[in-house]
Amino acid sequence: MADIQGSYDDLFTAVPGALAALLDEGDAGGSVAVFVDGRPVVDVWGGFTDADRTIPWQRDTIVNVWSVTKTMTALCALVLADRGELDLAAPVARYWPEFAAAGKEKVLVRHLLAHTAGLPDWDGPVAELYDWTSATARLAAQAPQWEPGSEAGYHSLTQGFLVGEVVRRITGRTLGAFFADEVAGPLGADFHIGLPAEHDHRVALTIPPQSRDDGYAASAPASGATPAGTPIRVRDGNSAAWRRAQIPAANGLGNARSVALVQSVMACGGSVRGSRLLSQAGCDRAREEQFHGDDRVLGMPMRWGLGYGLFGDTYGWGGWGGSLVMIDPDARMAVAYVTHQMREPADDNRGLEIVTAAYDGLSGLRA
Description:
Blueprint: E1 4-8, H1 14-24, E2 29-36, E3 39-47, E4 63-64, H2 69-82, H3 109-113, H4 132-141, H5 158-171, H6 175-187, E5 192-193, H7 234-237, H8 240-244, E6 252-254, H9 256-267, E7 271-272, E8 275-276, H10 280-284, E9 291-295, E10 300-304, E11 309-311, E12 314-318, E13 324-328, E14 333-339, H11 350-366
Antiparallel strand pairs: 1-3, 2-3, 2-14, 4-6, 5-6, 7-8, 9-10, 11-12, 12-13, 13-14
């Protein structure tokens, strides 16, 4: 069995066991954290950070978690809404006047968070993603693909720029800076949207699925079909330009510990480690259903809340390549799994296996 490092409560032995099984199946490396009542009951890691499996995964290894980043961006918006600085029911153009172009006057802030704004595709060059001003100007000029609010279509890359620009217009700070100052800093969370070069040595670069190379491109999780717009390849996500940029839907870097810690705020009514980021009511907003039906990009039924996917009484989201965070407010639990080892989407249930193992421990804890 693969060697697992870290610590865990005895009731949660199924979780490190599940991580070890994934490594035994051929994954290069990964980390898992489970927080209950704001404290870690599992904080483990294992495997290697490189494809050649020569460099052991360390406690402070970080990876690109791809769309798990969206949960961090959503939290920033919810914090501003809780402070009364952002009205989620207001037109986006109230905060970002240029956005009203091309028939978008009626797009509301909540439409951005719920993937119902009608701007799902990134149609520009990949290099333009690294220039915030150019990226947001391109989106402001686009016409929506459907009547905003009437349908949902996963905004895989665009959501972060859309929400992030609203945050910037209100606060005068980039999304990455706001997150660092108002969320990661107070919590002591090792998660970054826009990574300084001095942290590069800690990054485990993304490894494509077996039989694929670094030209492997993002695709819709359900259908396997390449979405419209500019494809993002593994080599793009592994570049220094990607890490330096702020792409708040897709380029957050962290480990399972930092992801679970931050999202424990949502699981625990807004307060963790003595830091209150928002009220219970502010947390509850995340679960307000904005859309229920077939997502036209993902090609599957979805329930979207405000920035999070809704799954029964839980909510959260996963990222390209397998990383995932799940929040259960009733159990005051957050579960995070991060990995740099991709699998084909149709064959990837790793995050669900980790979550199931966490519930095994929780049932013993509550007994």
